[in-house]
Design brief:
single chain, 102 residues, alpha+beta, five-stranded antiparallel sheet, 4 helices, 26% strand, globular
């Protein structure tokens, strides 16, 4: 992702899907670890982290367009959050993959 997009708490919360449980995953060294979080727990997490960022194409392809992390986090500490893809794509269209010319 060439241009990183950081969000406010309110912008991140607005991208959450409807429902009381929201799927998330961590990208640990040994593989993905997925879990459903309650909306209230996730809202608290969104408020506590240092950064709320739009994800790249791979995570977006898995319908997880929001990444939550704090200063000093490692790759495995970043929480990828399920998003309302219609809202996400409307506000922040996915970037096209870099294409090599033949």
């Amino acid at each position: 992702m060439a241009n990183r997009i950081f969000l406010t708490e309110e912008q991140a919360i607005d991208l959450l899907p409807e429902g009381n449980e929201i799927h998330t995953f961590y990208n640990a060294a040994f593989g993905l670890i997925g879990a459903d979080w309650s909306r209230d727990e996730l809202l608290d997490k969104i408020r506590r982290v240092d950064y709320r960022e739009i994800t790249g194409n791979q995570a977006r392809g898995m319908r997880h367009g929001l990444a939550l992390w704090s200063h000093g986090s490692t790759q495995g500490d970043i929480l990828f959050v399920e998003t309302d893809m219609e809202k996400l794509d409307k506000l922040y269209p996915a970037e096209e993959e870099d294409k090599e010319e033949i």
